[in-house]
Amino acid sequence: MVPSLSFIRNLKTRHKILLGYGLTLGFTGLGVATGIFLSMVLSSGNVSLRQGALDQYKTTHRLFNELSSVEIHRSQLVSIIDDPELLQEQYGHLQESIANFESHWSYYQDNLGNSLIDPGKDSKAEQEAIQTFVDTYKDLPDRYFQRLKQLESQFDLPNVQPDRQDDLQQALTQFSKSDLAKQLEVFLDDLELQSDRAYANYLVTEGRYNRVQLVVQGVLLLGLGISAIVALILARYTSRILAEPIETVTAYVQEALTTSNFQLQVPIHSQDELGALVNSFNDLLQQVATHTQELEVAQQTLEDRVADRTQELQKRVQELNHAQAQLVQAEKMSSLGQLVAGVAHEINNPVNFIHGNLTYVKEYSGGLLKLVDLYQTQGSKTSPEIDALIEDIDLDFLESDLPKILQSMEVGTKRICEIVLSLRNFSRLDEANYKAVNLHDGIDSTLLILQHRIKAKVDVPGIVIVKDYGELPLVDCYPGQLNQVFMNILSNSIDALESRDGDRSLQDIKANPSTITIRSERLNDHSVLLSFADNGSGIPPEVQTHIFEPFFTTKPIGKGTGLGLSISYQVVTEKHKGILSCSSAPGMGTEFRIQLPIHAPATSPPSLLITT
């Protein structure tokens, strides 16, 4: 009988918990035990009966298959007597089939024929039928196999001599027509009939077994269901007694927190530990109400002061860090720009001297070679010393190779002049004013500066640069600062491609080369658009939202300051009144788009060059 509610309320909390667990486990165990007992009673006997029928069917079916295999292999011996290899292989299969049949036939006689019979109303008739079958054919397989062994000994199978192959073929043919072979065929038919009967018996026992199992499952489920329902009712009953005081306290706490009314008092309904806890909680509420009122004014004042001061300090620290980084970077890049301009100037003078004099060297050497050629064609007799010198210096080779050398030197000096011009255009130290320039020249100069990172290495293919330039007018801008923006964007793309190629094989890189595509177009009468797109790994969405923030970088320590894209964004948007945006998806590459006005009011130039 379930205890009354008033009695349970006055129990200690641990006694309430133990009572709830005991009742729940007790009813659950009773239901499970009842279901298991009923299932054992219902299913007893059906498992062994089903297994016996299955074994009987498997054995008779195997006997039929093995004996059929013996007949097939024996009949095929006649047609392959003249092929020793096939004869030996087929004879081996025959012996294997005979061994398997003898094993199963012995098992059938010792077990299935006597014990694995359905003990129903027709069990006696079935027992007699099987016993008659066993008695009828008990010795037939042995006599049949003994006859095959006689043929084996007579003709030395499978190593029969060629001169006896015809005799063996005739003996096998006569054996196929013998009474023993015909008796075996009848035995094979009866064995198939026994297999069909065993299978039918198995189907009957299987159906009976399945029906019993359904009943057993139903009994188990019914017992579990009843016990679960009773256990749930008891669990809910005991848990409600335990949870009701806690829920009451929780409701009062939530109300006190929501309304800030700490004068509330929780009613006490029991004398157990929870009742003592509620009493202590009421005392605590009174103390909280007293202290809360005293703290509210001080806390509000202090929070306002701390919040204002913290916000001001954070703003000042951020401004200070940004300004400090800009000053350091400005000094470093200013010195670098001066160094680049100075080196370009110092290289430019001797290179111009060499390049300019190469024209005269080509002219003078050409005249000398013509003079030598003319001297040789006049047929004048030369001294042995001259002939020896001509042979020693290989005059014919010198006449053909000297113009090539001079041409190569001219190409080299012209390349040096182009590099020097690109360095001067890139630094733009002499063009810091706001002026109209060709943006394509700045991009090409930047690509030339980065050529050492773009070109192919010994073991790594180079980065493919695709230029899709449109017709652009001259754009008003700070040329040197925009060149540095191009440098930042292109350097980031090269970094991303090099990082991805480090994880790829050489074959993969050749099949899908790293590519940077640069496009330009005139959007309308007032603005132009530059696009820098690569086929790298892309930028994750959570990183894209921070790429233009100062000091944000995903590069390893020492390889990035986190200022490149931040100050590039400042140069494009604030100094040139343009738009700098980025679009990317993981695995799809990254594209930076720069939209610039063609004619914009000049602002004060940026205070520093930009770097990543």
TrEMBL record:
Taking the record's annotation, the residue ranges forming a coiled coil are 281-333
- List GO molecular-function terms, semicolon-separated: ATP binding; phosphorelay sensor kinase activity
Q: Which UniProt keywords apply?
A: ATP-binding, Coiled coil, Kinase, Membrane, Nucleotide-binding, Phosphoprotein, Transferase, Transmembrane, Transmembrane helix, Two-component regulatory system
Where are its TM segments located?
20-42, 214-235
- Enzyme nomenclature, EC number: 2.7.13.3
Q: Which reaction does it catalyse?
A: ATP + protein L-histidine = ADP + protein N-phospho-L-histidine
Classification via PROSITE patterns: HAMP (PS50885), HIS_KIN (PS50109)
- Where would you find this protein in the cell? Membrane
Cellular component terms, GO, for this chain's entry?
A: membrane
Pfam families listed in its UniProt record: HATPase_c (PF02518)
Q: Which residues form the Histidine kinase domain?
A: 342-600
Q: Which domain of life is it from?
A: Bacteria
Ranges where the HAMP domain occurs: 240-293
What protein does this entry describe? histidine kinase
The scientific name of the source species is Prochlorothrix hollandica PCC 9006 = CALU 1027
